[in-house]
Amino acid sequence: MQRPVLRHPRSSLAPFLSGAVYFFAASLTLLTSRFDGGLAFIWIANAFLLAELLTSRPSSWIATLAACAVASALATTLFGMGPVAAVPMAVINMVESLIVAILYRRLVPGRTVMGSMRSLAAFVFALGGVADIVTAAAAAAVAAKVAATPYTLAFVQWYSGHVLGGLTCTPILLMFLQGEVRRWMSETSPRLRLEAVGLLLLFAVLAWAVFYQSRYPLLFVPLLPIVVIAFRVGHLGAAMSVVILGIIGASATIAGVGPLSLIAGSTGERTQFFQLYLAFSFLMSMPIAAELNGRRRLFRLLQESETRYRLMAEHSGDVVFDLSVDGTIRYASAASEEQIGLAPELLVGRSAVTLVDPQDRPIVIAAHRRALERPGTVQTVEFRPALSAVGCDWCEMVIRAVLDERGLPTGVVSTIRDMTRHKARQQALQQVAAVDELTGADTRRAFLEKLETEMRRTRQGGRSCLLLLDLDHFKAINDRHGHGAGDRVLAAFVERLRCGLRGIDSIGRLGGEEFAVLLSDSDIRRASTLCERLRRAVAAEPMAIGDGEAITVTFSAGLVELEGDSASAALEAADKALYRAKHSGRNCLRLAA
Questions:
Q1: Does 513 qualify as catalytic in the annotation?
Q2: Is the per-residue pLDDT at 160 higher than 50?
Q3: Domains located in the chain, CATH noted
Q4: Which among 195, 513, 514, 549 is annotated as catalytic?
């Protein structure tokens, strides 16, 4: 149901029209239900005023209340307790409606009385739980003073009459004033409109038959049809059936006929019993109708949501799966045939984990379980598929749990997209970030990561060494021959080192002309021998620097054996050994202390 728009009177005559309607309703109830010279047993005028206030802007309330107050005073003067009670009763009537309107707006702002169980409960509370208790106390005092009616009797008369009128008539009046009846007529098919009219007519005939016979107490008979109408027609039908029951039952009771005439007592006492009966009828049918209205609205929203979901799923390039708690495929989108090579109907009933490479199944199963254990969260996992129709090497799965009305997971919805290109780009970027652009050696960050890995291996019994190298007098090369020549020297230096190393060894450029070599599976003796061989190989042949020139390059080195300490400690020890090599005349190797 869409949120109602509050009305704003378009004419200055609107308050006078409201006053006229209020005067007619008040006069009618005073003439037909005032039996003992005191208060009326039935009061529907305030139901109209409540509907006016609840559907209009507060800025128009003052004019409406003033017009209805005058109408109330005039009706009381002409047909009620006379001019002495006219003004007090008018004020009390206006206060009742104002309390309900203000309190209801506070509890459920912007909603109709019939919109939900919450709004219906708020209306009943505001009317019967607050407003009519307060105003019944004041009205009973006026009746006791002016008409000598016992205070308790007057309190009960006011309270029951005003609660009955509000509960019976306000909902249907709200629907008319908000245009809900017009919307129902335009949105409902002719067949359903005919069914609704037929049900209400049959109910009117049934109510007439029950209340205009005095032989059998058949008050229970209309209750089932009211529930049926609430189910078939909704809250509009439920409100109409209560109004029909109220009109027919009240007229028969006041006329002294029907099953209530079997009750010994005055007409007023029988009318109060009918009010109690009608209140129970209202409280039985209207909550059912409100709950059904909420369920219909929820069902419509679910249908719209499913339509959007189906549209997106069927036209998306991603594969969409609806999986049960144990991972069985309950639905597969059309993209599965293109991406996986299997039609959706062939996937339904199959375990989704069979589509995952066996090596990646544990992480996918773990993500599925996390989604079920943490409803509301989104789990993302990357895996390699076991089947692919388009050469897909990597996939990304996004998983979210589906909950029932109790908030318990009934399965998950998963979307799977091809991540092959993204993975290739990611690996290419990682490769670029891991390799020094000038020399082809590992970057500082990539080399330190390899060093950390090697340190963990040595803690488990492996033997490896770290060699720090620094080109001798490299600044002089840049100053004399230019930075271009220096760059060519660095590249040639790394290439010459690589020729003397094994495939399991790693070279890293730590910065400028400083390099590091990770010698795996080598003790300090073998590493020292290798380093001396590298030093002689570098110094043996001059390196070309361009324009036919070549220069001889040497390096100083510091060597440390990795013994399970931290990487930073190993680097510091090798750096100290390198420092001693530089101060020992360069072009030499020194071992860490």
A1: yes
A2: yes
A3: 14-178 (1.10.1760), 180-312 (no CATH), 316-423 (3.30.450.20), 435-591 (3.30.70.270)
A4: 513
